[in-house]
Amino acid sequence: LPCVLRKWLQHLDNDLFVQFLPQGQGVRPLSLAGHVGFDSLPDQLVNKSICQGFCFNILCIGETGIGKSTLMDTLFNTNFENLESSHFEPQVKLHAQTYDLQESNVRLRLTVVNTVGFGDQMNKQESYQPVVDYIDRQFESYLQEELKIKRSLHNYHDSRVHACLYFISPSGHSLKSLDLVTMKKLDSKVNIIPVIAKADTISKSELHKFKIKIMSELVSNGVQIYQFPLDDETVAKVNTTMNGHLPFAVVGSTEEVSVGNKMVKARQYPWGVVQVENESHCDFVKLREMLICVNMEDLREQTHTRHYELYRRCKLEEMGFKDTDPECKPVSLQQTYEAKRQEFLVELQKREDEMRQMFVQRVKEKESELKEAERDLQGRFEQLKRLHADEKAALEEKKRLLDEDQSSFGKRRAAAQLLQAQSLTANGKKDKDRKK
Ligand SMILES: Nc1nc2c(ncn2[C@@H]2O[C@H](COP(=O)(O)OP(=O)(O)O)[C@@H](O)[C@H]2O)c(=O)[nH]1
Ligand SMILES: [Mg+2]
């Protein structure tokens, strides 16, 4: 809030006071005796913001079991519903949970987005692409809301990711190529805050070297991580110091252990206790201070003014909108729309002509195909007709031969019967003569 107030005051200085004064004159302070009342504007802003409540969205990227859920619980001093995920997820899924939190009279709508199954795939692209797509989808829905005729941005649930905690495995060696590729893909879309997870598993001297190694690898690979801002002089000093401590080495635990005469969050080992909130044990407090107490508003602002702005610009340019024409003359939205419409109509006409030509061509092709088929059929019909006539002639010849055979057979049979009758008569005569 102090940051908001300071920015608001600067805004007042620039826009309100100066505009009332002739050029060249400075700010004209009004005397307190004659109270006008606009000095209450910051209070009005604070009251309005408190009434509206705040919203903050954190994305936790890191492999399964690296301590993401535990750190979130430790940061917000609560127990979020955490489902333990397996190492056998076929693909990375982003799981977002929204919680309404309240601290004194300030309400915060917090969304924690978890990368389930990150780093468990063989193919690196399968790990980072769902994350990139998720971030873009949140920008897209905000852009769609902005472009609506009836906008309701004041009660729109802004799901754009304000901070991305990137959990680095405490190997003590170097970043994995998946870490570098993912951070590189995301650095223009989100505020990346790298953290070394489970920092109680790495020794102090190794940790120091590891931090230097990580930072040099990020620089040499051109990965832009979020830098705590230095433009606000009240926090510039602490932010400069904290920028030098990046990446924060964190330890998470919701377990309470008694140290001295009080209970503290810690991890207990046979050889001792690692206190989460002890700055000589780890950087957890630094992270909480920087992320929540000092720079939460800047993270929200950077998301809107830098990352979302870039997304919006690219998207609108992709859609063909531009502010100036090639001669640097301003182009209004209406002009762009008209030009686009004209372009679209020309394109449509061209497509229509092409389709018509294609149709005519296809009809011609089909026609010649049909004619060819008809010719084929006619040829086959003629051939069959010829075959049929030949077969008919052959059959008729066979029939004629058969008829001839039949008549000669008839003749022969009649001759045979005559012979038989004659021989019978001759035999009868002989018998009669013998009896006599
Ligand atoms: N040594 C150590 N273990 C931790 C730390 N944070 C979490 N763990 C343990 O790591 C395991 C996985 O933690 P979890 O938060 O569920 O990991 P996630 O899968 O990334 O959400 C649990 O057994 C935690 O107790 C830590 O800072 N140091
Ligand atoms: Mg988890």
TrEMBL record:
Instruction: Kindly give the InterPro entries that the UniProt entry links to this protein.
Output: G_SEPTIN_dom, P-loop_NTPase, Septin
The UniProt regions of compositional bias labelled Low complexity, in chain numbering, are 415-426
Q: Which UniProt keywords apply?
A: Coiled coil, GTP-binding, Nucleotide-binding
Going by the entry's taxonomy, the superkingdom of the source organism is recorded as: Eukaryota
Region span, Disordered: 412-436
Q: Does the keyword GTP-binding apply?
A: yes
What Pfam families does this protein's entry cite? Septin
Location of the Septin-type G domain: 52-318
CDD domains assigned: CDC_Septin (cd01850)
Q: Which family does it belong to?
A: Belongs to the TRAFAC class TrmE-Era-EngA-EngB-Septin-like GTPase superfamily. Septin GTPase family.
Q: What is this protein called?
A: Septin
